[in-house]
Design brief:
This protein has five helices and 13 strands. The protein is of the alpha+beta class. It has a seven-stranded antiparallel β-sheet, covered by helices on one side. The termini are far apart.
Length: 346
C-alpha cells in the first residue's frame, strides 16, 4: 500500500507546544517541520489543523528516501510575492541544467529592492559518493515554497536536505530562504498577494458576468527571436497564490527533460486546484522546446502577471521569428475541465 507523506510540525518551546494554524497570538517564533517524501507517495503535504490540504507536488520523478527537515523563524517575515518571484527564478535556473547534474551552490535574489534571497549549498566534497543533484533541488524548492504557503506567515525557512537509505541518513545540503536585510521591510498588510486581483489592472469598467480583454507583446531579452502575445481576460480572476504556484509547478514539470527536447505539451495544476496551465506546440515546422516553455513561463510572471497585476486567466500565442509555434493557456480549473477552445483567433 502506498504510504502518505508525513509532516511533523512542532513548536520548540520549553513551556508550550502549539501547531494551530491562524493562532498568531499564541504562536512561538521557531517551528520545525519534517517532510517525508517516499518513492510511493501520492505527495500530498498536510499540516496539522489545516482546514484543507492545499499542497501537492507536481508529477516529477520521485526520489526514494529524500526528505527535508525544515526550521521556520516567524520573527523574520517575508513578503509572499517576493518569495514566489525568487523561487521562480531559482527553479528556472535549476530547470536549465541536467536532471542528474551535481550541485554545489545555487543562489537567487530576484529584483533590486526585494528583501529575500534563496540559497542552496552542498558542503560535501566532490569525491563523496552521494551528491546533491538538480533533481533534489527542484523537489526541495517546491516543498519549501509550499511549506511557507501552508504556514501561518511567510518567514525565514532553513532546510536540511536529507537522503535516507539502508546505510543511514546523509545530509546532501541545505536550502535557505531568508531576508537580505533586517526586518525593516517586513511583510505589509497591503502585500500584493492580499490585494484585489484586479485593483490596478485596467481602467476599463467590466460589468458583472462580462469579460474584457487586454493584450500586449513581450520579447525575450536573451533571445529576441522568441516573443509572445498575451491576452488577459479581465472578469475571470484567479488568486495570486494559485497563479504563482501553478507557474512554479509547470516549470518543475519541465525540469526533468532536456531543455532542447521537443515539448509537444505541458500541463500543470495549482495545489488548491484553482488554476491550470496548458502549453502546446502548434506546428511541426518549428521545434517548440521545454526551454522555450520555461522561458515563456518565467517572462509571463516577471513581465506581465506581477508588474501589470494580471491576476486572471491569460492566453498566450508564442512565436519564433514571427512564426507561431506554441500556445499557453492559464485557466481557472472549471474552465479547463469544461474544455477551453483549442486556439486563439489571429
Amino acid at each position: 500500500m502506498a504510504r502518505c507523506p508525513v509532516v511533523c510540525i512542532h513548536v520548540i518551546s520549553a513551556s508550550t507546544h502549539r501547531s494551530h494554524r491562524g493562532c498568531t497570538s499564541d504562536i512561538q517564533p521557531w517551528v520545525s517541520v519534517c517532510y517525508d517524501q517516499l518513492s510511493e507517495d501520492t505527495t500530498s503535504l498536510q499540516l496539522p489543523h489545516s482546514p484543507h490540504s492545499n499542497s501537492t507536488l507536481t508529477d516529477i520523478p520521485r526520489i526514494p528516501g529524500f526528505r527535508q527537515l525544515f526550521t521556520l523563524d516567524y520573527t523574520k517575515s517575508l513578503r509572499p510575492i517576493e518569495v514566489f518571484q525568487t523561487a521562480i527564478v531559482l527553479l528556472y535556473d535549476a530547470a536549465q541544467r541536467p536532471w542528474e547534474e551535481p550541485v554545489h551552490f545555487m543562489q537567487a535574489h530576484e529584483q533590486i529592492g526585494y528583501n529575500v534571497v534563496m540559497l542552496i549549498y552542498n558542503p560535501r566534497p566532490p569525491e563523496a559518493p552521494m551528491q546533491l543533484k538538480i533533481s533534489h533541488c527542484v523537489t526541495a524548492i517546491l516543498q519549501a515554497v509550499m511549506t511557507l504557503t501552508d504556514s501561518v506567515i511567510f518567514c525565514q525557512l532553513k532546510s536540511r536536505l536529507m537522503l535516507y537509505s539502508a546505510d543511514g541518513a546523509t545530509q546532501l545540503g541545505t536550502l535557505t530562504i531568508t531576508p537580505l536585510r533586517s526586518n525593516s521591510a517586513n511583510a505589509e498588510e497591503n502585500d500584493t498577494l492580499a490585494q484585489d486581483p484586479n485593483a490596478n489592472a485596467t481602467a476599463l469598467k467590466i460589468p458583472n458576468g462580462e469579460v474584457g480583454v487586454t493584450s500586449g507583446r513581450i520579447t525575450d531579452e536573451l533571445d529576441p527571436h522568441l516573443t509572445f502575445e498575451y491576452h488577459s481576460l479581465i472578469g475571470k480572476p484567479i488568486t495570486a497564490k494559485d497563479i504563482s504556484l501553478v507557474i512554479l509547478d509547470a516549470i518543475a514539470s519541465a525540469a526533468p527533460y532536456e531543455m532542447n527536447a521537443e515539448c509537444k505539451d505541458l500541463y500543470a495544476i495549482s495545489p488548491s486546484g484553482g488554476a491550470a496551465i496548458i502549453i502546446e506546440s502548434t506546428t511541426d515546422k518549428l521545434s517548440f522546446t521545454y526551454g522555450n516553455a520555461t522561458r515563456v513561463l518565467k517572462r509571463l510572471y516577471q513581465r506581465v502577471v506581477v508588474p501589470l497585476r494580471r491576476w486572471e486567466e491569460i492566453w498566450c500565442v508564442i512565436y519564433y521569428d514571427n512564426q507561431k509555434f506554441g500556445e499557453l493557456r492559464m485557466l481557472r480549473v472549471a474552465e479547463a475541465m469544461r474544455g477551453a477552445p483549442g486556439g486563439i483567433e489571429q
